[in-house]
Amino acid sequence: MKPARPFRHTPYDGSSQPFTVGLKPVDEDSWLEVDPFLVPHLAEKERLIGASLDVVFRAEPDTGAAQQEVLDLVTGHLAQYHPDTHRVSGHEVELLQAGRRVALADGPALLTASRLVQEDLVLMRPGPDGYRLAAASLCFPSSWSLAEKFGQSMTGIHDNVPGFNEGRMGRMVARIFDNLKTGQLLGRFNWSIYPDAELHHPQPKQIRVEIEDGALARLFLRVERQTLRRLPGSGDILFTIKIHHDPLAVLESQEDRAELAAGLRRQLLALDPDQLAYKGLGPTRDALAEALEALSG
Questions:
Q1: Structurally, how many domains does the chain consist of?
Q2: Model confidence pTM above 0.85
Q3: DSSP state at residue 89
Q4: Phi/psi at 120 (nearest 5 deg)?
Q5: Is the residue at 6 inside a domain?
Q6: Domain membership of residue 107 as a residue range
Q7: What b/e string do you get for 189-201 counting C-beta neighbours within 10 Å, with b at 16 or more?
Q8: I need a labelling partner for 58 at 20 to 30 A (CA). Which of 161, 209, 210, 290 fits?
C-alpha cells in the first residue's frame, strides 16, 4: 500500500461548505475507503470494543436482519474492490496486512462489519417521528456520544447543530432520507479542528492555542467523509463515517499549502458565533486565521 498522504479530502477548499447538506453522488467502487491507516485504525477499534463495548455499540433488538444486510454489503464490496487488503471467504475475512481473521458469525453482524473497515456504521430506521438511530458501531465519534443519541430521531441527534432544526437543513435532510432510492449512494464531508490525534472523541472539545508556541504545531484537521444508502431489504438507511485526521503542522510542507490554508482561513472567518461555538473554535478562531494567513501569503 502506498505511504499515507495527508489532506486526501479537503472540503474546506471551497468544494463543500460547512453547515450545509452538500450531498453528492458517490461511485460504488469508492464507497468504502481503505488507506495506509487501516491496521492501526482497526486495532484501535478492537481495543475500544474490548474495553467498553456498550460505549461503542448499541442496537435495537429487531435490527438483526438489517445488520446482516450491512455485513453482506460490506463483505461483498471488500471482496470486489479491496482484495489486496481483505480476503473474503464464506465464514471469515482475513485482514491480510494485520495478519488476523474475523469470523463472520462472531457477534452482532453490524459490529462484525465495523471490525472490517475504518468506517463507523450507523443504521437509521424510519418511524412516526422520522428516522431514528436504531443501531450503530461508533468507535470514532467527533464529539458526540452514542449512549446519548441512541434511539433519537434526526431532530434529537442534531439538536445542538446550529441551524439544523430551525432552518432549511433539517427539512432538506428529512426529504432526502424519505426519497432515497435503493441503489443510490450519496456522500458529504465535515471538517473540524482538534487538539490531539485521538480518534475516539465522545466529549465536546475546547481548543486553546498559544501563538508563541506555533498556532498550528499541535493541532489536527479532522475531516469526516460520510455516505448514506438505503438497504434493499429492511428499507433502513446505512450511514457511514470515515475519519481522516491530518496534523496541521504538516500543512507547511504541502505543495498546495497556500491554496489549502487560504480555503480553510476563508471558511473559519465565515463562521458565525454559534457555528464557532459548535466547532469549539470561538476563543481561537483569530489566532488560527492569522497562522493560516502566513501560510497562504
A1: 1
A2: yes
A3: -
A4: -85, 150
A5: no
A6: 11-296
A7: bbbbbbeeeebbb
A8: 161
